[in-house]
Design brief:
825 residues; disordered N terminus; 29 helices; 5-stranded mixed β-sheet
């Protein structure tokens, strides 16, 4: 384990216990280098800072510390030391409110350290996200079971509608059901002679949205007149069983009803569990018996068997609510005790926002995203010192407020006398007449920034007068002298160079002081960037920008971007790609490398470029097969077994690298336990059979240039399954049959000839390149994969232009991709 000797918190984290009373603490984890680290934060809202008499945006609470793991030993050592520091600061009876997710070790540590002196709150967002995830999973599974059952109305579900339509429909109806239950009660009509009372302005708390399903919470209805239960949702796509399941999921909203006490919520939860059991018994009769239904199994186990419903309902306790009495009083007439207070529920929302800030820092800073694991020498990783540096940088960046951009003045003065003569007199009479200098108006303009500070140049304009002919001349100025000339010529050149590079308009505006309108006008004049020359072999990489699917087209050998493709406000589709390839400019393309089978043609095309599957794409087919086996194996485990510490990492053991040298530090410390657990899992007949067939599929991907290897594997899967079913004990036969079905769900697309062609062509190209490197190790040969292209896409995602949201964002992103990151050596 990483060194857990925590230094003095007053020095390491700059969290001043003497000046702050951390009554509300949030716990959450963030992943760093493949392992979970714990973020501990004071979530009490701080008063908005004021600067120059103007209120500033309210800052989040301070980060108390960042622990190198979420192991119970590290958490317990931290809280015991923190209690000692709190007692030394004059708070011996410290009773904090601690908000976290439903990670079991958090609760065990809080109980061991504090006993009953702390209030532990299970965060609403994590519980709601678990409800939504189990609803979507069970709804999709039940719809699939019905399509394979005897219900003829839904027998052709997969043929009539794509499976992707089921999830959005469940999400839409679940959102509608939640909003209907949270709608305020209609106001009763006013009686005669009684004026209608206005609706009060109720301050409501905002909660994070799992899966985008929950909208802003409306004001709660009056306790005297609760709203009637809304009618059930309706849909022509979903079965009535699924609609009833959506209603049951929405009914769980009573968990966060602040008007009910804890015992009332628990009684309502018991009733809800009985309703779920009745739904399961009713729905089970409509499908085959071997497809067992168990809706909300994990959720019921956590809330009921492990009694997490106590921590969930602790959120509604009065002492667990955050109350701020320091709201600003704009009029300045109210007494402090009469000012309004704002009440919030304890949650990890601020910690989640902090985690997003950490990820943003990792994207912007090269120090955060350095990969210490590059190279084959695993003994040089030195994760302990790397984590110490990472922790220090984060604590400074998150706890120390950023400095405001300074503005410095640059005073310029012209010489008091003119050193020139009148050119008009010299041309007409040949006389040499000296000019007299007169002071003009004072001028001011923005200049090139210096050392992070904005520079504003100030000077007095001058005019030179000829005493003989009266001619007036003006020496060269720093600007064009017009009303719009608020920037110097040097700054204008600087702005043009900055707008052509990777930038955000707000960043340039803050750094230089130039108004956004001028920057917008300058950027509007920049022409579109033409596409680069089209190579013979291109790579196609998919990415999402503004929630729309776009494509990055690169030169496969070097990864140089040659084009960015977009379909406007909709997703870019494979049909759009095929139409783009038929344009005259792309006729030089002979080979198209892809990493997802969705971009392959529907069938082998006799004309046009050849499609090849990248090694990463071939690995994803194998990975999805292992994931299907893992999911089937996990569903067989009891929830109580999955929650034990030894079984928590079983997914990583199946999906990750089997070589312990490549594991993170904490996993390498417990390598013997992990390997023993992997051996126990491989004794499972279904897993053993499935992994054996996946190894044969790996070999099939590297054989031949025709379809015989993959077709032989598909036939071998059926033959081997029949042989195992005959020789296996009766108790193991259903397990082997489920493993075969899990593999077929993933490998069914391999029957397409276009996918087989792409997979085998890519495998042959990789094998040829490996042979060439073995023959000539000194040769500098590009890899037969999309590895360089993926690195370019990573650079593009980390660029400033990728985060821009103005009207020229796509134009700027395309310019940066084609002229910026593609030239990085």
């Amino acid at each position: 384990m990483i060194d857990e000797s925590l230094p003095d918190l007053r020095v390491a984290s700059r969290y001043r216990i003497g000046t702050r009373h951390p009554q509300f603490i949030g716990l959450d984890e963030v992943f760093w280098r493949g392992q979970a680290i714990t973020v501990i934060m004071d979530i009490h809202p701080a008063a908005p800072a004021t600067q120059a008499g103007r209120p500033q945006q309210e800052r989040h609470g301070q980060v108390i510390d960042i622990l190198p793991s979420r192991e119970p030993e590290a958490l317990e050592a931290f809280f015991r030391q923190f209690r000692t520091l709190m007692a030394a600061a004059g708070h011996p009876d410290w009773r904090p409110v601690i908000a976290s997710d439903m990670w079991g070790d958090f609760r065990h540590v809080i109980r061991r350290v504090f006993g009953g002196q702390a209030i532990h709150v299970a965060d609403r967002f994590h519980v709601a996200a678990k409800i939504a995830a189990e609803l979507v999973s069970m709804g999709e599974q039940h719809q699939l079971n019905l399509s394979l059952g005897e219900d003829q109305r839904f027998a052709d579900l997969n043929a009539r509608r794509a499976a992707a339509e089921v999830r959005p429909e469940i999400v839409r109806l679940y959102r509608a059901a939640l909003n209907a239950r949270r709608a305020p009660a209609p106001a009763p009509p006013p009686t005669s002679g009684t004026p209608a009372q206005p609706i009060p302005d109720v301050r409501t708390s905002q909660h994070k949205v799992p899966f985008g399903m929950i909208s802003r919470r409306p004001p709660p209805p009056s306790p005297a007149a609760p709203p009637p239960r809304p009618a059930g949702v309706a849909s022509s796509l979903l079965h009535p069983d699924t609609l009833r399941l959506i209603d049951l999921a929405a009914d769980l909203d009573f968990l966060w009803d602040a008007r009910k006490d804890q015992q009332s919520v628990i009684r309502a939860f018991r009733t809800w569990v009985r309703d779920v059991t009745a739904w399961r018994e009713s729905a089970q009769r409509r499908i085959r018996q071997e497809r067992r239904l168990n809706p909300f199994r994990d959720l019921i186990y956590l809330l009921d068997r492990e009694t997490w419903i106590i921590e969930v309902t602790n959120r509604n306790r009065p002492e667990a609510r955050l109350v701020r009495e320091d709201l600003p009083d704009p009029a300045g007439v109210q007494a402090p005790q009469a000012r309004p207070s704002e009440e919030r529920f304890a949650s990890t929302g601020r910690v989640e926002a902090l985690n997003r800030a950490i990820r943003a820092l990792e994207q912007r800073s090269p120090n955060h995203r350095r990969n210490p694991f590059g190279g084959a020498d695993w003994t040089m990783w030195n994760e302990e010192s790397l984590f110490t540096q990472y922790r220090e940088r984060l604590l400074y960046a998150l706890n120390v407020p950023p400095l405001r951009t300074r503005t410095v003045a640059r005073h310029l003065e012209w010489p008091a006398t003119a050193d020139a003569t009148c050119s008009a007199c010299a041309a007409t009479s040949g006389a040499v007449v000296g000019l007299t200098r007169h002071a003009g108006p004072k001028r001011r303009a923005w200049d090139v920034p210096l050392a992070g500070a904005r520079v504003q140049a100030e000077w007095t304009a001058v005019e030179d007068h000829c005493p003989a002919c009266g001619a007036v001349t003006r020496p060269p100025d720093l600007t064009d002298g017009t009303v719009t000339g608020t920037v110097t010529f040097e700054l204008e050149a600087y702005l043009h160079a900055s707008l052509l590079g990777d930038h955000t308009r707000t960043g340039i505006q803050v750094a230089t002081g130039v108004d956004a309108g001028r920057l917008r006008a300058m950027e509007e004049q920049i022409p579109d960037t033409p596409a680069g020359p089209m190579p013979t072999e291109i790579g196609v990489l998919e990415f999402r920008w503004r929630r729309q699917r776009r494509l990055l087209i690169t030169e496969r050998a070097t990864g140089r971007p040659v084009e960015l493709l977009s379909a406007g406000t909709r997703d870019f589709t494979p049909e759009d790609l095929r139409q783009w390839l038929t344009q005259p400019e792309q006729r030089t393309v002979q080979a198209v490398w892809v990493e997802r089978e969705a971009w392959l043609p529907t069938d082998a095309e006799p004309t046009g470029p050849r499609f090849l599957m990248d090694a990463y794409g071939r690995g994803r087919v194998i990975q999805r097969a292992i994931q299907a086996l893992q999911k089937d194996f996990t569903n067989e485990l009891q929830v109580s077994v999955r929650q034990t510490p030894v079984w928590r990492g079983h997914r990583k053991l199946l999906l990750g690298n089997a070589e312990p040298r490549t594991w993170p530090l904490l996993d390498r410390v417990h390598a013997a336990e992990r390997l023993a657990l992997r051996g126990r899992m491989l004794e499972h007949p279904g897993l053993a059979f499935g992994l054996e067939m996946i190894d044969l599929l790996r070999q099939a991907f590297g054989q031949g240039v025709d379809h015989e290897s993959v077709t032989t594997w598909l036939d071998l899967l059926d033959i081997t399954t029949q042989e195992r079913l005959v020789s296996a004990p009766a108790a193991d036969r259903p397990v082997i049959e489920r493993a075969r079905r899990a593999l077929l769900r993933v490998t069914e697309p391999l029957k397409r000839s276009a996918l087989q062609d792409a997979v085998l062509r890519g495998a042959v190209a990789s094998e040829d390149r490996r042979t060439q490197r073995e023959a000539d190790p000194a040769a500098d040969l590009p890899p037969a994969s999309l590895g360089p292209s993926r690195r370019r896409l990573k650079d593009l995602r980390e660029s400033r232009a990728f985060r821009a949201r103005d009207e020229f964002a796509w134009k700027r992103l395309r310019r940066v991709a084609l002229t910026g990151i593609g030239r990085i050596p």
